[in-house]
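Work Package 4 report. The design task specified in the project plan requires that, given a folded chain encoded as structure tokens, an amino acid be chosen for each position. We show below one input record used in the internal validation round.
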């Protein structure tokens, strides 16, 4: 499998604080990779460096063989907040990314409606954000990120503000959307269950300064369902990730 993104000896310092220290891992093309670790270990900072929004202090990130030195066009981003425009409809919010790219929104309306159907948003095309639940707003934000089929999608705790039940449903909705497009995804989360359920690879980071403590390949069949959560292999993978986080907290 070819590599989409490579993190090489990445370090980031904010003043006297070393946030990330010599982090290295690779993200295979069309794979779903999660980053987990305790708060403050540099997960979100790493994501912002990958997007070209923040410069590294040392090392580098390469996307499709080219070093990331500034903002990248061919990247979709999903944040913890859906950041929808309140005066636009759901469909209009999803199509906004095409307009911002100088494209004709009408050319992408069919795909937008297909994504909305996969995300369970059919019938809400003309709704405004205030008429949607938090989970529905975030599903719209994910559809927006996937509209132009970017080669890389970066997700920073996209379900962090949701309740546990909605968060689980969102995980399955995201899986459905991702299996349709097979973008390369780099996903930051604090949830071990979420990371193992969604991912092909889970990168475990230590506390600040963030270092790569373990890389866990999740060898579970897709599509994954609620039954996957009871699979002994799932339980074993989740235990390994948890042990990696706990070991990292005492080792460094």
């Amino acid at each position: 499998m070819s590599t989409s993104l490579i993190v090489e000896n990445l370090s980031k310092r904010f003043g006297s604080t070393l946030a990330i220290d010599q982090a290295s891992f690779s993200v295979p093309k069309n794979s779903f990779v999660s980053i987990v670790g305790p708060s403050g270990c540099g997960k979100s900072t790493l994501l912002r460096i990958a997007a070209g929004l923040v410069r590294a202090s040392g090392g580098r990130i390469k996307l499709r063989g080219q070093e990331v030195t500034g903002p990248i066009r061919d990247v979709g981003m999903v944040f913890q907040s859906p950041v929808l425009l309140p005066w636009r409809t759901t469909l209009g919010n999803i199509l906004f990314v095409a307009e911002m790219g100088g494209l004709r929104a009408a050319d992408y309306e069919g795909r937008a409606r297909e994504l909305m159907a996969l995300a369970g948003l059919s019938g809400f095309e003309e709704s405004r954000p205030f008429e949607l639940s938090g989970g529905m707003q975030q599903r719209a934000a994910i559809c927006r990120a996937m509209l132009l089929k970017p080669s890389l999608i970066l997700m920073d705790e996209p379900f962090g503000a949701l309740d546990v039940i909605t968060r689980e449903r969102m995980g399955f909705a995201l899986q459905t959307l991702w299996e349709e497009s097979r973008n390369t995804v780099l996903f930051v989360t604090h949830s071990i269950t979420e990371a193992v359920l969604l991912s092909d690879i889970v990168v475990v980071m230590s506390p600040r300064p963030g270092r790569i403590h373990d890389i866990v390949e999740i060898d579970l069949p897709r599509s994954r369902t609620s039954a996957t959560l009871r699979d002994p292999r799932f339980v074993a993978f989740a235990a390994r990730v948890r042990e990696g986080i706990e070991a990292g907290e005492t080792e460094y």
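The chain has two domains: 3-74+151-251, 85-149. Validation will be extended to a larger panel in the next phase.
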